[in-house]
């Protein structure tokens, strides 16, 4: 619980400490690796986020959410083909998850989809 609260309230140092404790207690919980990856992406460290997501996907290989975040992370790393493949895979596993679509939108923004940027940021179409 503390890990999620510290993540949601942007208390980075407390998050890191709680995360390490949680992983020590339950290293087989993929959600911790997912949160860690999100925090690393927010800090501009996508290669480390990819490692955390790989650990989450080892534990839950078909998780649409984890696949969608990895798709976004691959886009940040400029691995566009892998990013698109992972996006398709995440949508194949769950086309109804708003979180999956959220990360798919961020993936498109990160690859430079101008039309989508306009819609997300409320800018009028040119």
Q: Count of helices?
A: 8
End-to-end gap: 45 Å
Secondary structure class reads mainly alpha
Number of strands: 0
Average pLDDT reading: 86
Strand percentage? under 5%
How are helices and strands ordered from N to C? HHHHHHHH
Q: What percentage of residues falls in helices of 4 or more residues?
A: over 70%
Over all CA atoms, what is the radius of gyration? 15 Å
Rough shape? globular
Reported for the largest beta sheet, the result is: none
Q: What are the segments in which pLDDT stays under 50 over at least 5 consecutive residues?
A: 116-126
Task: Tell me what the structure shows.
The chain has 126 residues and is mostly helical. It contains eight helices and no strands. α3 (30-42) packs antiparallel against α4 (46-59) and α4 runs antiparallel to α5. Residues 116-126 have low confidence and may be disordered.
Question: What are the SSEs and their pairings?
Answer:
Blueprint: H1 2-8, H2 12-25, H3 30-42, H4 46-59, H5 64-76, H6 80-93, H7 98-110, H8 114-121
Helix pairs in contact: 1-2, 3-4, 4-5, 5-6, 5-7, 6-7
List its traits.
single chain, 126 residues, mainly alpha, globular, disordered C terminus
Summary of the model, kept short:
This protein is mostly helical and 126 residues long. It contains 8 helices and no strands. Helix 5 (64-76) runs antiparallel to helix 6.
């Amino acid at each position: 619980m503390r890990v999620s609260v510290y993540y949601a309230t942007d208390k980075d140092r407390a998050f890191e400490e709680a995360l390490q404790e949680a992983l020590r207690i339950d290293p087989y919980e993929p959600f911790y690796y997912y949160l860690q990856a999100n925090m690393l992406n927010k800090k501009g460290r996508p290669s480390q986020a990819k490692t955390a997501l790989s650990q989450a996907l080892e534990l839950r290989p078909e998780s649409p959410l984890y696949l969608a975040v990895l798709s976004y992370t691959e886009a940040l790393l400029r691995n566009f083909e892998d990013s698109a493949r992972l996006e398709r895979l995440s949508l194949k596993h769950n086309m109804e998850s708003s979180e999956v679509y959220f990360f798919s939108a961020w993936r498109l923004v990160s690859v430079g989809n101008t039309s989508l940027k306009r819609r997300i940021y409320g800018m009028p179409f040119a």
